[in-house]
Amino acid sequence: MSGERSAVDSLGGRSLARLIVTIVWIAVKLILITAMLDKDVAQFVYAGF
Amino acid sequence: MNVLLNPLFWIAVIAVHLVMHVAPSNARGLTFGALNVIVLAAVVGWRAALAVSVIALLLWAALRSTVALRSRDAALMVGSAGIAAALVALFVCYKLSREHPQLWASAAAGLAPLRVDLVTSALAAISFSYVFLRGLDLTMAVATGTELLNPISLLGYLAPFHMLAAGPIGSYRDHVSSDQPPASDASFRDLVGNLNEITTGLFYKFVIAESLKIFAYGVNGRISAPASLAGTMFLLVYLFFDFAGYSRIALGIGRLCGIPTPVNFNAPLLATSVTNFWTRWHMSLGAFVLRNIYTPLQLGLTRRLGAVRAHWVSLLTLLVSFAFVGLWHRLSLPFLLWGLGMGGIMFVEKRVRDYALRVPSFQGRPAAVALQVIGPVYVFLVLSLSLRFVMAELIGV
Q1: Which residues in chain A have Cβ-Cβ distances shorter than 8 Å to B218?
Q2: Which pLDDT belongs to residue B112?
């Protein structure tokens, strides 16, 4: 029984961790998108190329 | 201005999501249709909203009259064919006005008092090329027995605001199912998943595609025809991120609002054959062609000519289907030849595949691994060469 519970907890924990990673990834993408819409950043990227 | 950079568009997404969340499950299609026309008027302009409303109303009235003839098969077929022909005629006029303005100006000179230019600009605002395909899908579905929705619900199918920029082409049969209750209540996880889809699409479009564009053409540069094959390959990658980005944004918004929105891309640059590529790139167009052109034509021809001529039937259906795809993109000879070429390549691939299935040495794991490695290179090369063939048309218009 304890083994089963631990498997379920671990699955729930993994699922929560995945959700948090997804939320962080969404935030990172939003920051990068907002930055790229700024012409100064775009110029900076071009200079980098 | 790009519709995705309009704050009103995103305010509309949130508003539609909230309203659809509380809308009764048996009136979701109706609610979305009414909201959609308001959003179109606010984001694109009242002319666009009016154009969609007129098209939806005319199509509904024509289909309603045709459905009344259902007891007489021949009359139903003639009625549906007439509606499809009217849609094709409107599409041809629209394409001529956009792609061959001089030819259109002389052809429509006598219609000047009717302000045809206002009509064509309103059609352009609602991306009529996509509305045309949805109209055809609707006509074919209703002719074969699918329920005809009311005109307001049709407004949400023909020109949904979240598919305005670059499709995809939703199936009418799927749209009819939006009035059924969702399989499960929307959870926080679903919300995060949909936001992830939308931001991935925005990331494709405004970070990856935009960086590629800046790299090749500068900050405010315009896309021009590449001089080399390598440049064309680069442009193909750019087109993928730009187009797939739009499609993922539409998919995320569609799911957020509970409106059926098809998946449009599935890693097409990893395809192992051109045939495989067209099941992974602009998948909703491929599904439309399969539903409404390829399958009915193949079945009809096989019944008439018999299974003995199956190869020729297969060649003809592929040529006709891809000629349509080519002409849908641009109404020009290079795009017609491009479509016929694609159909021809897919026919040859089919014959090669049939042959390979009969040879035992092509069945092993080494052959499968070789296909996984060589296939994408071959597809990338063929697609890049075909893109070069229509480059002038694609960039020039």
Answers
A1: 46
A2: 63
